Amino acid sequence: MKRFIAFLVILVIAFASTGCGSSNNGKNDPNEPVAASDLLARIKERGYIVIATEGNWSPWTFHDDAGKLTGLDVEIGKRLAEELGVDVKFEETDWDSILYGVDTGKYDIACNGVGYTDKRAEKYSFSTPYVYTHKVLVVRADNDSIRSVEDLKGKTTANTASSTYADLAKQYGATVTPVNTLAETIELLDNGTVDATINAQVSINNYLEQNPEANIKIVQVLPGEPVAFPMRKTEDAASLVAAIDEIINDMRSSGELAKISKKFFGMDLTNPD
Description:
Layout: H1 2-16, H2 39-46, E1 48-53, E2 62-63, E3 69-70, H3 72-84, E4 87-92, H4 95-104, E5 109-110, H5 118-121, E6 124-126, E7 131-140, E8 156-159, H6 164-171, E9 175-178, H7 182-190, E10 196-200, H8 201-210, E11 216-227, E12 230-232, H9 238-254, H10 256-265
Parallel strand pairs: 1-4, 1-5, 8-9
Antiparallel strand pairs: 2-3, 6-12, 7-10, 7-11
């Protein structure tokens, strides 16, 4: 009998040591670290935000003569991190890897002149726009056969494969040759490998300022699009979107956003008009 009672006592002790009979009612041990419940909290917990950018698309994101990463997106990205109270870690990658990396959680946010579209908004959460840009159709200087996008049918363009510029070229019947950088785009255009390119007006203007002898010309200016920061389209990212929206709106109200735009673009592109 005594052995039976002793056996029961052992069973009770063993049961009490499991989660089912613990005194914290199944809650985590308060001494153990608890994973943050949303993306913003996790960023603050780790102490830095991971930002994806190309690093080769002036004046959005590029390396200066000293090799330092700079540009409009880089400067705004640093300010976002500063206002969030964390450090910033820029990850340079090619354009076609940026949105995929955001989608998989490799990057917290992308700062790379990403145009907002309804199609992209189905998959990503976007911040409020921080600039609004126009597109331009560019051809070689001696090309007189392409005067507008209506002339692109049966022609070839150079663009990053998943860009809105490539989508637009395809809509008008062009065959897109995929590239990774603006320099590669201009090279293919200059040597006659492609007939045209559709690109950001500020980027082409910046290139022509730095390379006035370039053998290219702008033949059409097209309506622009809002540019914003994409993040994962999940419930746990909502707080980060809200925080970034507040920072951007404060920078717009204070005039800081316009100042950064003028610094890199030579004009204020922070308002839709």
